[in-house]
């Protein structure tokens, strides 16, 4: 009887989880593609290759191509420093890494407007030197870097802490330089965790809305990323085109999810093999 009760409870929990996923994840995802294709495949393709849409796609890819590599460099450096060394201010650095998780993206965007806007702290100097940060690509890149920089570091810090310093110290004692130690010892040990963090960072960079919305200026065909372009199309009641562009972001999410699952499997398999 007790075994039957546990089995029933397990089935109920599984059923609730599946129903929740179907209602809040699968159904909205299916509706995005259904709405995008509601006027036919030709209208769907036309919405994707429309000049403003192509500009938004190019800008989104450009911002991701700049912000993700910078976050890789920062994430590795920060994780290596925090996990491998003891220094004054270590806990403060860890706190700063978590800051974007606790600050609203909209507030982050406003901070950049206050710093680099026409009436901001650095605005007069930038205007005098004909440099535009806010309402231009540099501002979008800065805002995206801010909201995404914890992802790589937060994946690597616990991994590096768990691995300890033994491998690096052994390599250094054998005469390896610091760069050789990093390239041949540290980097191979963290490659799966690094790839996992990069996937999450890239997905957030392409899908960021709040901070980018504040600093972009919503210049159609110039400073609109894909999420902002979707908003404009939706506000214009061009629902089919809005959902068509949104489906590209949904495809990105699906690809990221698949790659994330593959990386998790490889990472767990590698750790399991090392444990044996």
Written account of the structure:
By secondary structure, the chain is mostly helical. The protein contains 14 helices and no strands. Helix 3 packs across helix 8 and helix 10 (166-173) runs antiparallel to helix 11 (178-207). The radius of gyration is 23 Å and the shape is globular. 30% of the residues are buried.
What's this, in brief?
With 276 residues, the chain is mostly helical. It contains 14 helices and no strands.
Biggest β-sheet, characterized?
none
Structural class: mainly alpha
Query: What is the 3D form?
Result: globular
User: Percent of residues in beta strands?
Assistant: under 5%
Rg computed from alpha carbons, rounded to a whole number of angstroms = 23 Å
Helical region count? 14
Order of helices and strands: HHHHHHHHHHHHHH
How confident overall, as mean pLDDT? 86
Say how many strands there are: 0
> Would you identify the regions where 5 or more consecutive residues have pLDDT less than 50?
none
Helix percent band: over 70%
**End-to-end C-alpha gap:** 39 Å
SSE layout:
Layout: H1 2-36, H2 41-49, H3 51-84, H4 90-97, H5 99-102, H6 105-116, H7 123-128, H8 137-148, H9 150-163, H10 166-173, H11 178-207, H12 210-216, H13 226-235, H14 239-275
What descriptive keywords fit this protein?
82% helix; 0% strand; mainly alpha
């Amino acid at each position: 009887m007790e075994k039957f009760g546990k089995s029933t409870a397990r089935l109920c929990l599984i059923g609730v989880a599946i129903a929740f996923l179907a209602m809040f994840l699968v159904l909205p995802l299916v509706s995005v593609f259904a709405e995008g294709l509601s006027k036919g495949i030709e209208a769907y393709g036309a919405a994707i290759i429309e000049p403003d849409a192509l500009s938004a796609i190019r800008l989104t890819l450009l911002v991701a191509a700049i912000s993700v590599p910078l976050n890789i460099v920062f994430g590795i450096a920060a994780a290596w420093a925090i996990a491998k060394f003891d220094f004054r201010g270590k806990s403060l650095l860890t706190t700063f890494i978590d800051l974007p998780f606790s600050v609203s993206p909209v507030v982050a965007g406003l901070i950049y407007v206050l710093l680099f806007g026409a009436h901001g702290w650095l605005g007069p100097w930038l205007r005098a030197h004909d440099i535009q940060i806010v309402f231009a690509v540099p501002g979008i890149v800065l805002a995206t870097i801010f909201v995404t920089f914890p992802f790589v570091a937060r994946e690597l810090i616990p991994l590096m802490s768990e691995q300890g310093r033994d491998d690096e110290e052994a390599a250094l004692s054998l005469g390896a330089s610091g760069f050789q130690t990093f390239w041949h010892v540290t980097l191979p040990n963290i490659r799966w965790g690094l790839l996992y963090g990069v996937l999450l960072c890239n997905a957030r960079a392409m899908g960021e809305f709040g901070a980018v919305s504040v600093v972009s200026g919503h210049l159609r065909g110039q400073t609109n990323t894909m999420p902002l372009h979707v908003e404009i199309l939706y506000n214009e009641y061009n629902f089919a085109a809005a959902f068509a562009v949104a489906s590209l972001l949904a495809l990105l999410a699906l690809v990221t999810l698949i790659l994330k699952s593959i990386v998790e499997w490889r990472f767990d398999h590698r750790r399991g093999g090392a444990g044996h």
